[in-house]
């Protein structure tokens, strides 16, 4: 199978340039093509692509995982540079959704492209058989649809559609590259309108909108019900339409109307409400416009979130709805749809339509209900796919499929054949630790096994067939095979509390006894948001200072135990790894980081300094990097030798950099930036695909077991009071110009004391424990400060730092 080493994207619009950016994120060179403008206006013939690359560097959220990746994107034009396609393995078309324009482009590409290179379209509306109509057999055998979801860096779903003439090798090469190199959850779809995710998702949004209008349900009520209670992001229906653009739905609906059969349920229910027409005409198209169903009113100098009244079209301040059904949903999905209030009736109406519609589409859109669920989980961030939701409607007596079929029958609505086939059995089942799903293509009630992938597994896969090696209310330890244990945090947001620290220490002892290495990771969205602030605030309020100091000492000892264990420790991190979570990464032998890793030492935001060795480790890493770059060569007797500057090294620039990093609470915006910040060391690696993270971490841990040696304890020579005076001068300057608050000054000067070694001086060697002692002493001084307690309380209540 040919490897994809270089790519091209034709079309430098928002989507095309973002696809090019994400290909560059994988380390793959990519050529970005566009037309030559009719009026050059002094620019180059490549100016459309050049300007697109410039926009990539300014766009927020960033399409690039690191700005340097922009250098991998080469601007080009379709008149002068098509010969560059001779060196390209995969060309992606991302231009206007007009068949005649696309086919004209394909004919140009066909002349210049490399033999057996893959060509694909990013279309979301045009079927593959239409795109390839009239094209050569040679073109058809190399052609695919690769439908990226927007924004390509952050949305994990990629729908892959092959034609009957498409080579298996071309499909496999594209699948593997998109999975491993681009980090996509690749779902292979049939060549049907809207494929899987948009076919279902657009029906859901349409039903959600129309039913809210018909039933007199407010936008706030609709989103409160069709959000967290169902396992859907808090945007719900209306917030999501604002996000993707209200004007997009009518365009998709027209496309579906042109391609779907007249009997399709979408064509039966779709209509464009007059309110929506007016909003689009007035420029209220969502977040990209003046506002949408929601908007921020800044009149009077205040930001007030307002919501459209679906009856009058007027904006009113947002109101938090009070619905019994939302509370009832805590008992399960059946309790939500069974509630008699307006929220329950709305949920029942919307869910019964979307779930029955989805069931009616299989096997038309896919032979696998698992792939359908995966597409909705990855493409629309649903926690549960449609068939999983149907199962959640069941109880001990009746399956969800049977319950839904019975409800549809009472309503006089058609019952999809797949619901009849499921009968009183679930769509998903477990047996002997293996997972199965109901076959949609077999005439019998057969179940297909969800295969375990040794290179892409989750802890849920492990849990299904084993028991924990050890467990407490905040953490669990699992055997993941080959002598490797995996430590999982299970507390809320994976915040670190004394029970987690106990399990970390216990894990070290258990690995010592009969295992080869330890990985620390989980299936959650975030690795860890840091220390449990609720515990600290509670202990502070009762003046349990010895208890807090005990936990700080416990954390320091535990993390040092990790660092100096006689086996490798690899942290598998994705999402947020803040504060105490970041400190775990810093004490690991290596980190296997998902590309979407947001990590940093953020303790100053709550009025303290890192207390579990974060200051020490960040300082050590910075000094080590500085020493490596500041070695000098001395020519002695014709020989060259490298001399470390040791104590004569001017440590202040390094200390200043570390001070700035911690005092500004800097957070990486990707795994690549985490490496720049030294949170990832030289042994650490980055995974593009979240599904492969734990497997990659285990493989790295196994590699490190070969000839593993416990690291040698370092010694530090820190400047003490002299260095602290220099840092304090910088703090005074920021206070003077108004960039630091009164408590910022207190915390920053306390941090300066830690990083300069307290009362030491440059002539004395300090051990790691000496620095930890200063960390703990300073932490305890700050945690007793009223302004720090105010910051902690504010963070717990509002989720953002207090600037006091």
Summarize the model shown:
This protein is of the alpha/beta class.
What does it look like?
This protein has 804 residues and is α/β, with parallel strands linked by helices. It has 4 domains: 7-188, 3-Layer(aba) Sandwich (Rossmann fold), CATH 3.40.50; 197-438, N-(1-d-carboxylethyl)-l-norvaline Dehydrogenase, domain 2 (Orthogonal Bundle), CATH 1.10.1040; 459-602 and 667-705, 2-enoyl-CoA Hydratase, Chain A, domain 1; 612-664 and 713-804, no CATH class. Helices cover 43% and strands 14% of the residues. The strands form 5 sheets. It has an 8-stranded mixed sheet with strand order 3-2-1-4-5-6-7-8. Strand 4, helix 3 and strand 5 form a beta-alpha-beta unit. Helix 21 (498-514) packs parallel to helix 23 (545-563) and helix 26 packs across helix 30 (742-755). The chain is globular and about 85 Å long. The N and C termini lie far apart (60 Å).
What fraction strand? Answer: 5-15%
Question: Strand order within the widest sheet?
Answer: 3-2-1-4-5-6-7-8
| Main sheet properties | 8 strands, mixed
Q: Structural class of the helices, strands and pairings?
A: alpha/beta
Number of strands: 23
Specify the helix fraction band.
40-55%
CATH fold-level label of the largest domain: N-(1-d-carboxylethyl)-l-norvaline Dehydrogenase, domain 2
How many domains make up the 3D coordinates? Answer: 4
CATH architecture of the largest domain: Orthogonal Bundle
Distance between the termini: 60 Å
Can you tell me the CATH class of the largest domain? Answer: Mainly Alpha
> How many helix segments?
32
Low-confidence stretches: 632-648
Apparent shape: globular
């Amino acid at each position: 199978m040919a490897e994809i080493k270089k790519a091209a994207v034709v079309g430098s619009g928002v989507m095309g340039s973002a696809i090019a950016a994400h290909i560059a994120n994988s380390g793959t060179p990519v050529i970005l093509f566009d037309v030559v403008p009719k009026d050059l206006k002094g620019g180059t013939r490549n100016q459309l692509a050049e300007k697109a690359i410039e926009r990539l560097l300014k766009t927020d959220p960033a399409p690039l995982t690191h700005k340097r990746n922009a250098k991998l994107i080469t601007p080009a034009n379709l008149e002068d540079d098509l010969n560059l396609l001779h060196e390209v393995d995969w060309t992606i078309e991302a231009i206007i959704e007009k068949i005649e324009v696309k086919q004209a482009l394909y004919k140009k590409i066909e002349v210049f492209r490399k033999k057996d290179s893959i060509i694909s379209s990013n279309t979301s509306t045009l079927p593959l058989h239409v795109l390839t109509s009239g094209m050569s057999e040679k073109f058809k055998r190399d052609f695919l649809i690769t439908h990226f979801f927007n924004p390509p860096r952050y949305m994990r779903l990629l729908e892959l559609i092959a034609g009957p003439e498409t080579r298996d090798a071309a499909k496999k090469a594209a699948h593997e590259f998109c999975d491993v190199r681009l980090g996509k959850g690749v779902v292979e779809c049939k060549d049907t309108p809207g494929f899987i995710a948009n076919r279902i998702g657009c029906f859901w949004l349409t039903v959600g909108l129309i039913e809210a209008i018909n039933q007199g349900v407010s936008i706030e009520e609709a989103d409160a019900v069709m959000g967290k209670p169902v396992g859907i992001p808090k945007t719900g229906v209306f917030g999501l339409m604002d996000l993707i653009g209200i004007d997009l739905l009518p365009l998709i609906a027209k496309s579906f109307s042109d391609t779907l059969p007249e009997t399709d349920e979408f064509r039966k229910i779709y209509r464009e409400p007059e309110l929506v027409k007016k909003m689009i005409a007035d420029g209220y198209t969502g977040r990209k416009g003046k506002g949408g169903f929601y908007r921020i009113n800044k009149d009077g100098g205040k930001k007030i979130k307002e919501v459209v009244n679906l009856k009058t079209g007027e904006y009113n301040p947002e109101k938090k709805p009070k619905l019994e059904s939302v509370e009832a949903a805590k008992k399960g999905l059946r309790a939500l749809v069974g509630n008699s209030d307006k929220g329950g009736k709305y949920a029942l109406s919307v869910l019964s339509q979307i779930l029955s519609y989805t069931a009616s589409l299989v096997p038309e859109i896919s032979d696998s209900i698992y792939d359908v669920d995966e597409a909705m989980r990855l493409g629309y961030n649903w926690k549960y796919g449609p068939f999983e939701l149907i199962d959640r409607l069941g109880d001990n007596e009746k399956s969800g499929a049977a319950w839904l079929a019975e409800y549809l029958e009472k309503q006089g609505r058609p019952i999809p054949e797949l619901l009849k086939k499921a009968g009183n059995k679930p769509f998903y089942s477990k047996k002997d630790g293996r997972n199965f799903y109901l076959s949609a293509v077999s005439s019998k009630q057969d179940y297909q096994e969800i295969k375990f992938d040794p290179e892409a597994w989750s802890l849920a896969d492990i849990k299904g067939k084993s028991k924990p090696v050890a467990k407490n209310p905040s953490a669990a330890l699992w055997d993941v095979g080959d002598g490797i244990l995996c430590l999982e945090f299970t507390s809320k947001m994976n915040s670190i509390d004394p029970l987690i620290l106990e399990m970390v220490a216990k894990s070290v002892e258990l690995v010592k006894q009969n295992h080869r290495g330890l990985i620390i990771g989980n299936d959650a969205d975030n690795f860890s948001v840091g220390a449990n602030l609720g515990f600290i605030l509670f202990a502070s309020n009762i003046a349990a200072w010895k208890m807090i100091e005990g936990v700080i000492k416990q954390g320091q000892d535990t993390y040092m135990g990790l660092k100096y264990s006689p086996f490798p420790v690899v942290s598998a991190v994705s999402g947020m790894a803040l504060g105490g979570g970041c400190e775990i990464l810093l004490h690991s032998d290596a980190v296997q980081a998902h590309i979407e890793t947001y990590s940093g030492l953020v303790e100053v935001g709550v009025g303290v300094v890192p207390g579990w060795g974060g200051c020490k480790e960040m300082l050590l890493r910075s000094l080590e990097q500085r020493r490596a770059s500041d070695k000098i060569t001395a020519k002695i007797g014709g020989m060259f030798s490298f001399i470390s500057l040791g104590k004569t090294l001017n440590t202040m620039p390094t200390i200043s950099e570390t001070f700035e990093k911690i005092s500004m609470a800097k957070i990486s915006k990707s795994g690549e930036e985490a490496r720049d910040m030294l949170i990832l060391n030289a042994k650490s690696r980055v995974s593009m695909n979240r599904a492969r993270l734990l497997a990659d971490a285990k493989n790295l841990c196994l590699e490190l077991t070969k000839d593993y040696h416990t690291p040698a304890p370092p010694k530090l020579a820190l400047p003490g009071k002299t260095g602290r005076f220099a840092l304090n001068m910088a703090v005074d300057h920021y206070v003077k110009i108004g960039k630091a608050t009164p408590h910022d000054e207190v915390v920053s000067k306390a941090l300066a004391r830690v990083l300069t070694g307290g009362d030491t001086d440059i002539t004395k060697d300090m051990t790691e424990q000496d620095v930890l002692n200063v960390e703990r002493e300073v932490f305890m001084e700050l945690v007793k400060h009223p302004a720090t307690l105010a910051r902690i309380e504010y963070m717990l209540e509002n989720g953002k730092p207090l600037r006091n």
